[in-house]
Structures are given as C-alpha cells and as structure tokens.
Amino acid sequence: MTINRRHMLAGAAAITPTLAHAQAAKPLLGTPRSVISEPPRDFGPGAPPAFNPDPDVLRVDPSFGGLLIGQEVIRRVHTGLHLAEGPAWNSEGMFAIFSDVKNDTLYRYIWETGEVTVYRRPSFSTNGNSFDYQGRQLSTQDFFRRVVRWEADGSMTIIADKFDGKPLNSPNDLAPHKDGSIWFTDPTFGGAMAEGHPDEGTLRDPTLGNTGVGIQLAGGMKQQLPTNVYRWDPSGKLEVALAPDNGGGAPNGICFSPDYTKVYVIRGGGISVGDIQGHKAVNMRVFTDCRVDGVRCGPDGMRADKAGNIWASSAGPLGYAGVTCWNPDGKLIGRIRLPETCANLAFVGPKRDHLFMCANSSIYMVRLNIQGASPG
Amino acid sequence: MTDLSRRTMLAGAAALAPTLYSGAVFAQSNSLVGQPRSVISNPPRKWGPDAPPASFPDPDVIVLDPSFNAVNQGHGAIKRIGTGYQWAEGPAWCGQGQYVVFSDVMGDVQYRYIWDTGLVVPFRRPSFNSNGNAFDFQGRQISGQDFPRRVVRWEHDGSMTVIADNYQGKALNSPNDFACHPDGSIWFTDPLYGGQLSEGHVDQGEGPMNKGGLLNPMLGNPGSGIIGSLHQVLPTQIYRWDPSGRLDVVATGKVPNGLAFSPDWKKLYFVWGGELAVADVAGGKLANIRTFSDGMIDGVKCGFDGHRVDVQGNVWSGSTSVLGYSGVTVWNPAGKAIGRIRLPEVCANVTFCGPKRDWLFMCASQSVYLIRTNTQGAAPF
User: The whole model's pTM is what?
Assistant: First the structure.
C-alpha cells in the first residue's frame, strides 16, 4: 500500500464518469447492493447505510431526474403484512392509512413517529382508500361489497352498496373528483375467500369467520353485476361511467389527471385513459401496456403527480416488481425496483412529496421532488 | 381472623357491599374493608405505569347531586395517559383522524394522543405557543397561536390559513380558546396571556405586558418575519369570526378565557373575569350576559379556565383550585354543581373524545388524564 490518501482520492475522481462499467476492474470501488444483486439489499432494521443515488431507482428517461432527489433512498417502514393495499394520505391528521386486505385490518402510519398502528380492526376487508376534498376518509369494504365514508364527526356513511337494485361486486379502488363525485371500480376480487367472502351457493361457505353478522347482506351475497366503473354523484345517484367493453377487462386502480379532465383506469394488464364527458368516461384508449424491456409490469393501483406523470404499481418479476412511472404521453421515464410485488401507492407527507408504496408484506417509502396531484 | 372461614368472609363482604358505594368513607372502622387511595389520602393515590389497580367507583369522582349519576360512568377509573409537560391546554378531538390534539403552551409543542395506541406523540414542534384548539364542522383544525398572536386553520390539503390576526387593523392580543358554531363562524377569546415570556412573547418596549420595557421579545424567537403584534393594543374581548372574513366584537370589558356553546347553539358559556358567564346567542351577537356560576363549592373557589358541554347541557369545566378541589367541576344547565373530579394537579381545560365521544380528556398542568363518562360531548371537537 504505497499509494497515499491523496492519490486514492484523485484516482477515484478520475474514475467517476465511467463508474458503471469500471466496477469489476477497479477493486477500489464498491457496488451498492440492490434488490437484484447477490446477495441482495437488506431492508431490515439491521440494514447497513443505504447508498445514494439509490441503485433501485432507475432513470429510463433523463426527464425522470427532475422528479427525484438524488440523496434519497428507499426505506422499508413496515413489514409483516399479508396484502398491503389502498394507501391514502390524510393531510389534516398527518397520517397515511393503508389496508391489509387479507388480514382484515386498516393500519395507519403516524407521520411524526413513523409508527404503524392498528387503526380499524376488523376493517371488513377494506381495500382501496382515499380522502375527499373535505378530508373525509373513503374506503371500499370488500367484505360488505360497498363504499363507505367516515365523516368529520367520526360517524360512518354508506355511499354505495348496490346498483340498479343489485349488490355491487366488491368495490376496489376509488378516486374523489373535484366536482364532489366519487369514481370507483367494481371488479370481483372481493369474492375471493381471502379478500372478502365467496358467493353463497358455492363449495366455499361465506358465513365462516364472518364478523359482520347482521349486516352481511347489505351488499348481497352473490355477484351479479358486470365489472363497471361507477360515478357516484353527491346527490346520491350512481351511474356507470365505464362498462367493461370489448376486451377492456375488469377495472382495478383508478385516478384522475391533475386537471380532472381525464380518467386513468387499470384494466387488461395495462392502463387505459379516457376523457371525462359529463358523467362518463369516453374515448377510452390504451395509455400503456405496461411492458418494460418486454417484461410485463402488471399494474394494480396508481396516482398522478402534479406534472401529470402516472406512477403505477408493478407486479412484474423480481427486478421489475415495484413502481413504473409514465409521462403524460404514456412513455416510460423511470421505475423503482422493490423486493416485493407492489399493489398500490400514494403521495404522502406534509408536502405530499413522499411516495408510499404498498408491496405485499411491506410498506416502502422514498422522497421525491414532485407532489401528488390530489389530496387523497 | 383465623377462625373465620373463607365462606364467612365472603358473606360478610357481601353484606357490606350495599353500603359500600354510599358509605365507604365511614365504613373504614371495619378492618375487613379497605379504603382506596385518592388524591387527598395520605399517602396519596399513585399514577402512571407503576400505579396499582384502581378501584371502581373512582374515589376521586365525587357525586354532588344524584343527577350526576346519569352522566357518570361508575365502572371506570381516572387514568393518567401522559405527563412531563409544562402547561397542558387546548384539548380537541379529531373525529375523522381519531386522535386528541392538545398544546403544551409553555413547552411550545402541540401533542396528540393517538387513540389506537394510547400514546402521546409530538405533533407540531414548534407550535408557536399554540393554546386553544378545536375542529370545525368540516373537521379542520383551528388553533390559537400565542406567539404570532393569531388564529389559524389547518386545511384538508395540509396547508395552513391565517383566520384572524387583527381587528380593525390592530393586532390581536393572544387568541386563547375557540368554539365553532354550525353557522360556520368561529368564536374566540382574546385575553393577554400570550404576552408573557413563557407563553408567547412580551410587548416590545414599554407595554401592558412588559412593564418598563425591560424584557426582550426577540430572544429565542423562532418566528421572525411572521411575528404578529409586538405590542398589545386591544382590550380583552370575545370575537365572532364570520366565514366571510368579517370579525366582530361580541363582548368586551372583562378578561375572557374558555368558551363553549350549549347543545342547541343558542347559549354561549364563557369565562368572564373569573366567573363563568352565560349569554344568549342570536344573530351573531351575545345578549343578556349573566353569571352562570361563581365557581364556589363547599366554600372553596374552583377557578374556571376552559370547559366543554355535554349533550344534556351540563358544563364540564377545568378547575384551578387547591388540592382536593382542583380537577373538573360539572354544572347542570341551571348552574348547580352536580359532580366533580379531583385531580392531583390544577386542570386548565377538558374535551370529550373517543370514537363515541364519551371520554373526558383533561389537560392538567404537567399531565393529561382520561376517564370514561356516560354522556357525549355536544360539539364534534
């Protein structure tokens, strides 16, 4: 070791521009662990300091850089869940709620302590969550197959549990519109035993473990309706905003563009976008098929940022699981690799500039240089 | 005692039971009967994590009139849920978020008690000496910030709005406590307390809150640039803030403090020069201001600071008094004391909280206490 410290630093500086390709040959340089390195990155409490820029935040297009803070790293803030879903930020109360659909619990992440607490248990298999413009919590309860709202005084209101006299399937994700309406998707996932209750009259007994006896029939015990996207009007009227037409498939996540003139709907393994005309979504077209490098990055939930980029969850294989970010033209500009499949995400924090990612058994967070478009 | 069989002991205890609740204090001579510790026993009752199990009914919840039993929940004990503050004030329940905010005015921190965990955590630090808190009918947090001497509102998107910081161009003194009316208005009191070093900032130079101008309001000032008034110029008054932005004086002439509406919103109870006053609310004005209570119980003055009203119309007030009378006093709508709660500390303010809004949250000097009642708070905050 005849080289002194000064020489080492000079050498490192010279190497920097070619970092990515120089690693193998230069033993003076390390490679930060990532979710696909061997051994992989550790996210637990004993994890070593994370290196920045984060090796799992990938810039596919230079424009993605403007949305990032280079010093920020992905943190795992909670783990041990069954199926994390439905994150939503409460600005008034400074906490993020999220669902563990399969564990029948609604949790919340308390901002000032970083603690995750049991918020509502049972949650009746709550799935999607949001907060409306009046700060009221909106939730879909898979078990009761309905949409509910928590009022400012702490009481609960049923927003919708049937359409045309027939019970809803299992309202999944929702988005409050600035006009006071609530748009929600109604796929059939809540008919899975683990996520709600199966239809009656099948091999599976929907009454086992039913904690909602007495109100279990509110939404009906048998799925009968097509997988629609609904628009609930503040007047109480429920209308089909988008029917599952020509191979579009069952809807899942839903969000609006920052100007509220467009609606994005996850269906058919990709993301569709349509224009809002009156109470309908029209001119539906493919926004993206969510294929990255030829790999399917199946989306489940998404949110728009203030610049109109769409941040979508990805259920791709390891290396592609996590988050994909698409600009308003539907072009992939960046992605985030997580060690688990991601179902949904939300912008959180006092400045609404942290991405809160619900990924199977864990919650991950990373700070961004952009804000979420909507308050919930 | 050895010849007494267990069965006999139990029978004896059962025979005593009927007289226990009414005559426990006088039954001590029987060595089989214990006496639960209270805040005035010697040694006194213990609080905190090491405290022994508390007995029901709580020895520090005192029924002064049988009507109190209708709102008192006998199967509960006072719990101390947090301690170590300098001056606990301004509790308010957030029904949407299921937590209680309260201020440590002198500690310059706003805490919240998270309902699901029972833990108190710092919520806003600095709080700019926030004092009174409330939530309006839309669930937005209203706070009085003693340091910048203003009223603020936290919006649903997380931004903050200044509701009022002056009256007719003159800076407010230090908005203290709040009551939200269903017509959208916010009623608040504006005493001088924020003009003290410990609770805000003193006047700059000679002034009513800085005799001789010896104290320097800029020391430790975290609010340079946003500081409100540096000099108190207005009399102590009660204001009504209209959603249009208009501010009106509804009472002037004495020092106000806590305030709360009756369940039908037609009366306002407010601390007025050391007494609890009541007045009729009509057309955004106060009429017929009269004394509701002088705070005297057993000849002992139980001073008022902050209070809340239950759905039956009873007024639950913090009591600033000597040990044995400090805590909470409960007054029926006619102004008669029907019950009280003894706390080991002076209590400034209370609020109803919990998912069913049936718990009383008591901000008592260095600690916060909680007890379940058999009634609900009239207002949602």
Answer: 0.86
